[in-house]
């Protein structure tokens, strides 16, 4: 029997891609904690020559439970001022939970969404 392990960076990459695809999300962007982690990760990848999938703006915590693992995901997004923040946040939660479960088979215990900025498009009515 083979056992496979899905690492936190893989889950974060799936979460970032799913969140970025939600209507109303302008971009996924790291908050202050994410910026520090991003700089460390970028330096490590420059040394190794890797070009990894973007994970900036997502943090992942894997928890071992009796029947496997569950995952908690935090995502930082910038949204459009043309959309309702609560609705976009809920849509991000659903999209991330669904994508992570589909891509990894992990049970998603929680998806936290932080709206770190709102972009107002003044060219639109």
From TrEMBL:
Record InterPro entries: Asp23
Pfam families: Asp23
This protein's name: Asp23/Gls24 family envelope stress response protein
Family (UniProt): Belongs to the asp23 family.
